[in-house]
Amino acid sequence: MIIVGAGGHGLATAYYLATVHGITNVAVLEKGWLGGGNTGRNTTIVRSNYLFDESAGLYDHAVKLWEGLSQELNYNVMFSQRGVLMLAHNIHDVQSFKRHVHANRLNGVDNEWLTAEECRDFCPPLNIDASTMRYPVLGGALQRRAGTARHDAVAWGYARGADARGVDIIQNCAVTGIRRGPDGAVTGVETSRGFIGAKKVGVVAAGNTSVVMAMAGQRMPLESYPLQALVSEPIKPIFPCVVMSNTIHAYISQSDKGELVIGAGTDAYTSYTQRGALHITTHTLDAICELFPMFRRMRMLRNWGGIVDVTPDRSPIIAKTGVSGLYVNCGWGTGGFKATPGSGHVFAHTIAKDEPHPINAPFTIDRFRDGFLIDEAAAAAVAH
Amino acid sequence: MSGAFRLPSGGRIDRSRPVRFTFDGRDCRGFAGDTLASALLAEGRHLIGRSFKYHRPRGFLSAGSDEPNALVGVGRDEAHYTPNLRATQVELYDGLVAESQNRWPSLDLDVGGINNLLAPLLPAGFYYKTFMWPKKAWTSFYEPKIRAAAGLGRSPGAADADRYTQHYAHCEVLVVGGGPAGLAAALAASDSGQRVVLCDEQAEFGGSLLSERQAMIEGLPAAEWAGQAAAELAARANVTLLTRTTAFGYFPHNMIGLCERVTDHLGVADPRLPRERLWQLRAREVVICAGAHERPIVFPDNDRPGILLAEAGRTYVNRYAVQPGTRAVVFTATDSAYRAALDLRAAGIKVAAIADLRPEANGPWPTMARKAGIDVRTGTSVTGTSGRLRIRQAQLAPIRADGSVGTSEPVACDLLLMSGGFTPSVHLFSQSRGKLAWNANLGAYLPDVSVEAERSAGACRGVYGLEAVLADGFAQGAAAARAAGGTTSPVRGLAVKATDCGHDASSARRPTAAIACSPRPSSTGRTTSPPRTSSLPPARASSRSSTSSATRRPAWPPTRARPRT
Amino acid sequence: MLIIACPYCGPRPELEFRYGGEAHVARPVDPSTLSDEDWGAFLYQRANPRGLHAERWRHVHGCGRFFNALRDTTTDFFAATYETGTPRPAGTPADGETSR
Ligand SMILES: Cc1cc2nc3c(=O)[nH]c(=O)nc-3n(C[C@H](O)[C@H](O)[C@H](O)COP(=O)(O)OP(=O)(O)OC[C@H]3O[C@@H](n4cnc5c(N)ncnc54)[C@H](O)[C@@H]3O)c2cc1C
Ligand SMILES: [Zn+2]
């Protein structure tokens, strides 16, 4: 079996193929370096308070795996359940978040409503003085089990675990073609380092999924956009949790290293350049400075971009494809890091058994033909 | 009077304007024109910070924006407090309040320093392999402890009291960096009457010229020439000069982000002024004149306070009239450090020895150094240093023909200058997505293939001799103006009288034993390869010159698009 | 921030425009006769190429008009902009080729 892409999702897939299904004759092919794609570029927010049942099932499956992951991998992925607070700034936000709170509870996912003062008590740097804000804080939804994890460690931990069980991880090896037999089924892949035969190929190439799937003649319901993030210089602990604001459009946390980690939405146009425009970043920082005026003098240290693959309903695809032996795990857009363990776990099942795990059964490509969208895009203004 | 280590005369400080400031609560003095770093050095203060992980005592390494150690918090109250500023960039003003960071209870007595003793037990990445059991302890115990140890400065404690603005602007030619190359480029580019913007992160234009003692340009001392050139530019209506302005990002289609620090250097600022101005500048052509950074040399304990880059030593002596020590050892792989040694000597600092990694050194500067009676030891390495909060002694050892290191001899010193050659500052070029090429002669990466409408000039593309730098800057400035539609072909001699040390050039041969002598990797810096014989780098290749230009360039200059059909 | 040459107004900064996704996606003349497969493909499947991309832009803070552009998604440089309703300019490389 071949996994295309050594990001967190590809490596987790290989790990669970080996540990859960006993399949170790697996090669993970990576055109760059291990974890050098979105896995190494994301802002590490982990949460599961999505609106729809299907999403709650998938993301909470992941959170449960996160909770034991360091021990399972014997590698500290620094999963830190410091809480994710989503701020409401207008009546629509309030109604929508309260609906989320109720829906989540019905699905056994923790989520609670806080008043503005409770938000400030949970996150002291937060400005809730309505007289100084264009969009005052009206309250927020808090998921306490949510938090962050150390992104590189996730990739390295899964890679170590997979490698120890006999999986081959080949870096600097770009897949350039997908070879198919007379019956149309996959027979292997062409790479920059030669042909590799395989009966099953799982594509986990994030922003490059359309390009890889086109090698098998498959058009995808995907568009690839640049998503930027940035960090400040490291400072002593000041920020206890993760705060997101969909309305004024920014989110922030503090890494264990001390950097303030900041992000927001994608750039406006599709691109593969892994960079974006300055006005996107300044817009994000305007929002941060409004919410946290005491950070305004902090200086930013690094700014970068990744390429995220976005589906029309902002929910992922973890599925079989129109080509026998070809599987795809994509469409995580701006928010797939949080799903890494769950995604790998159910995708490994899908490849090994040639049928989806119940958790990922709704996340087909066919939903865009049949109309069974899982429309988190409409349910929340922003992903992550 | 300020500082016991202030030279009685010279420098670019304004002795008629004494300035008072505090550092860690202690009253200190300096002059207008000082940086916080030069003023502290004038008071004999070398210990300025603690390293991130092991809390090793750290001093000033450089005199500019490449400073890794001297990070301080500045601000009279929480609403004006900024952490992690480089003391080498903080301009002194009356009433400035600065504090050191990452130490407890004080800089001189720091408990975190215990980590230094534990270093052998804390290899890189050890976090990932520990702190997992018992499961609950990560969030309740280990993580809070790790977080408390992380970070350098601290966040301001109150809402920022200042205002900020932004500015969108256009120009035909943007010149980034106002050293000799940038000044020459701006002089040439503005000849055509097109809009030229010249920016520099420092308080005054001149760059390396401000640290020169002997070089003359067009009959003037170098620093004076820089002032003259800036005045000439300021008199041209088509030129915008921006000091204290950092070009921090190169964005698609020749958009450059500039951060202009408007009031940070003022004790009392006009309340109508913003603290900073963000420029989003669209230039038709960009000339990058960002200079080069001197490389440290890797040897054991090369991070003690009192160990500086050689050019930084020159800058403190010549530009700020400060003695960074009284007895120096110079450790080098280049000729330029000999010039630094002679500048120290001229400022009354005893140069105990020059240890040169190379088997021989016979250029004009080494010859002058020997003539001046300095103890020059070629084929010699520094194998270690001692001194707790300041260097006290360096170990000098001969490098044998087979590359092994002989017995070392201690040399007492309170200052060690090092020079491992120069690295062209190619950051902006790389951000523009230009491709670098390795130049084996210079032992450095140089700009090669351009993507955006930009070009590099001077040290940032490996051109080092002063006369060559000025000529290169002028030629690239003129070429940029022509590429942006200008029609003139300016000519200017820019005659130089100086003894070249060719930085990496001519006399330097790759030392045989080089750095292999270090018994263990140093806790700072990465291994650097000392330079070899050099020639000027080849002219840069450009993907823009050929037929492909139509598709690679942004939709600019403003031609009207396809006719309607 | 990109500079985009509106065919009607000339080069303007990206802030004046709204992105409109892939160009030349023709709406089926009679959707009711289409298979689910084809209708889904029309609605959702996109070329999303690495390299030249024919795409729509709208000059919202300008003339307000839609137009098409050819942009290289590996460099973000434009090869051409042209009016809506006109075919892709002759002689330009196909989708996914680079403009180099
Ligand atoms: C700036 C930013 C912030 C984000 N913040 C968050 C967040 O806070 N929370 C969250 O949950 N998610 C976040 N995300 C999204 C998250 O990063 C991704 O959804 C997730 O990491 C995807 O993992 P992956 O393993 O599928 O992709 P990747 O890590 O991108 O791995 C795909 C790999 O495939 C390789 N590849 C591609 N083509 C080929 C080929 N032809 N041959 C071989 N290899 C190939 C790539 O090189 C890459 O390494 C963010 C993303 C970005 C860019
Ligand atoms: Zn228009």
Automatic annotation (TrEMBL), chain A:
Catalytic activity entry: sarcosine + O2 + H2O = formaldehyde + glycine + H2O2; sarcosine + (6S)-5,6,7,8-tetrahydrofolate + O2 = (6R)-5,10-methylene-5,6,7,8-tetrahydrofolate + glycine + H2O2
UniProt keyword annotations, A-Z: Cytoplasm, FAD, Flavoprotein, FMN, Nucleotide-binding, Oxidoreductase
Main localisation: cytoplasm
Gene Ontology cellular component annotations, sorted alphabetically: cytoplasm
Top-level taxon in the UniProt lineage: Bacteria
Record GO biological process: tetrahydrofolate metabolic process
Residue ranges of domain Rhodanese in the record: 2-45
The protein's required cofactors: FMN; FAD
Compartmental location: Cytoplasm
EC number annotated for this UniProt entry: 1.5.3.24
Cross-referenced NCBIfam families: soxB (TIGR01373)
UniProt name for this protein: Sarcosine oxidase subunit beta
From TrEMBL, chain B:
Entry annotated with the keyword Oxidoreductase: yes
Biased composition (Low complexity): 518-554
Stretches the record annotates as Disordered: 503-565
Record-level Gene Ontology MF annotations: oxidoreductase activity
Keyword tags: Oxidoreductase
Superkingdom assignment: Bacteria
SUPFAM superfamilies: FAD/NAD(P)-binding domain
Residue ranges annotated for the FAD/NAD(P)-binding domain, each copy included: 172-437
Listed PANTHER family: ANAEROBIC GLYCEROL-3-PHOSPHATE DEHYDROGENASE SUBUNIT B
Protein name: Putative FAD-binding dehydrogenase
Species of the source: Methylobrevis pamukkalensis
Lineage: Bacteria, Pseudomonadati, Pseudomonadota, Alphaproteobacteria, Hyphomicrobiales
Automatic annotation (TrEMBL), chain C:
Taxonomic lineage of the native organism: Bacteria, Pseudomonadati, Pseudomonadota, Alphaproteobacteria, Hyphomicrobiales
A Pfam family this chain is assigned to: SoxD
Chain segments annotated as coiled-coil in the UniProt record: none
Protein name from the UniProt record: Sarcosine oxidase, delta subunit family
An individual GO BP term: tetrahydrofolate metabolic process
Gene Ontology MF annotations: sarcosine oxidase activity
